[in-house]
Amino acid sequence: MRFLLPFLLILSAAATLLPGCEPKEDLLTTDRSAKLEFSTDTVLFDTVFTQVGTVSKRLWVYNRNARAVRVEQLRLAGKAPGTYSLIINGDDQPTADGLEIRGKDSVQILVKAVLGQVAKDKPFLVEDELQFLTNGNEQQVKLVAYGQNAYFHTEETLKCEEVWRNDKPHVIFGYALVDKDCRLTIEAGTRVYSHAGAALVVRGQLRINPDLQPTAELKPNDPRFVRFQADRLEPFYNDIPGQWAGIQLDASSHDNVVRYTEIKNAAFGLVVLNLENAAPRPGVLVENSIIKNISAASLQFGSTTAPFGGGILSFSGDVTVNNSLFTNCGEFAVAGFQGGKYVLRHCTVANYTPQFNRRETSSLTFSDELPVQSPPRRVSPEVSVQNSIVWGSFDDELFFQNAERYLGAISVTNSLLRTKAYSGAANTATKPGLNNQGNVLNQDPKFKLTYLNSTPDKYDFRLDTLSPASNKAVSLPGLEYDLLHVLRDPATPDMGAYERKNK
Fold first, then answer.
1. Structural contact between residues 167 and 121, judged by C-beta atoms closer than 8 angstroms
2. Which residues touch 232 (CB under 8 Å, ≥6 apart)?
3. What is the C-alpha separation between 245 and 235, in angstroms, rounded?
4. Which has fewest Cβ within 10 Å: 103, 143, 183, 502?
5. 323 and 287 in contact (C-beta within 8 Å)?
């Protein structure tokens, strides 16, 4: 026993010196055959606006070897100084020399890009590369950003007779303001991108695509449409609502025109704010337009803030909408509060909302009071819906709050409607009956492609051949053509924004 303890101490000391006792994955190899592998050979940023940061793209660096390797050099090549930045294993740093990667392990690198101002109108390429030196092996991963210069509007009050040209995109930070007694004209084909929370605010007059007069049928992606969306252009953000605020028309605005325009991914498409019911009321004419993927704004009503989102929200404003589509609006497609005049002709409300857990609001909602006001100021709205489709995922896609006060100002004709509350053939003392005047109630309009049989990038709200909305409308002067400039049947056109063509 007296020899056992010294023997154990010697054995223990010797064991610590044996290389085989250290985990293999922690042992460094200097073998030249031990190379790195990467999750991609090119980190690509598609369409980056100058001066606007991108999302972080992940690059995984793998050590597939059984033993650890030491990356002697990890750095940017510097071909585009100041463009790309790195976060390596959680640390914001441009280099990481001497980085060790255990056997069968990996390292994550986050790459971001910010392109400086460049005097180019056309898209351009900015390239760099990540360089790795490991056991004498030089390896590279390309960094590529497709850049686009733009007109930037950062909390800017615009010139009084400003025209937004289509030669470069327009990017809004914070807001772009059209002041009282001034006018903004946006010409055909212009692209407008807004940063998170940004808005186009109009106190004067807005004219979008006022002069376009097509002579032939348009395709849905026709380049002459003016298109509004957020400034995150990665595919992940294609159909996410609420990325920017929207277009705000204040009480002093007037004679606003929105034609051949797509507004998407906002908190509201258009909001008309005349909370004090000032006269004359602000108004907007919307024609041949698409408003989609809308949800979640917080609007101020006196001392109270209420969450709202809508394709068109109007507070004591006048709104006329022709030949237009509303879809995937999380709260409202069109809502009018505290009076105002609302005319919808040949519109399609296809308000399926698969991105939202459950919508509890009717797509078309009208009231004689503000949502939050005590005591309320009662102003009756006037509502006219003609030749339209009002459909969606909610059992009652129309709602007239306090309808008994303005029953005589409600007119709904030759339209396909989803409604339980108003399915009677005649008005009662408190609500309208809409099973009359050529209306079709609670029959699926049979759109070609919806979320039930397609993906968002392929939705098609034109009518199938067996649609109950086919040939059920009446001819309306001035609306002989549909949203895409397809000639309507002069005697029995289709309900909704699209005329079905027989092949």
1. yes
2. 55, 243
3. 20
4. 502
5. yes
Percentage of the chain surpassing pLDDT 70? 89
Residue 357 reports pLDDT greater than 80: no
Structure tokens at 354: 């698969």
Angle at 361 between CA 358 and CA 367, to 5 degrees: 170
Q: Residue 14 above 50 pLDDT?
A: no
Q: Sign of torsion, CA 487 492 494 500? A: negative
- Report in angstroms the alpha-carbon separations of 347 from 239, 329, 362, 482, 503: 21, 15, 16, 10, 23
What DSSP string runs through 461-491?
EEEPTT-TTTT-S---TT--B-TT-PBPPSS
Helices (H), ranges, 345-410? none
Token output for 95 = 């280099």
The angle formed by the CA atoms of residues 336, 471 and 345, to the nearest 5 degrees, is 20
The helix (H) or strand (E) run that includes residue 15 is helix 4-16
Q: Which two tokens stand for residue 470?
A: 């086919």
pLDDT in tens, 276-288: 999 999 999 999 9
Assess whether the previous peptide bond of 375 is cis (omega < 30° from 0): yes
Q: Distance (Å, rounded) from C-alpha 429 to C-alpha 12?
A: 96
Tokens 């005319």, residue located: 343
* pLDDT, tens digit, 9 for 90 and up, residues 213-257: 999 999 999 999 999 999 887 788 888 899 999 999 999 999 999
pLDDT at position 3, please?
47
Which pTM value belongs to this model? Answer: 0.82
In whole angstroms, give the CA distance from residue 428 to residue 12. Answer: 96
DSSP labels, 165-229: -SSS-EEEEEEEEE-TT-EEEE-TT-EEEE-TT-EEEESSEEEESTT---SSPPPTT-TTSEEEE
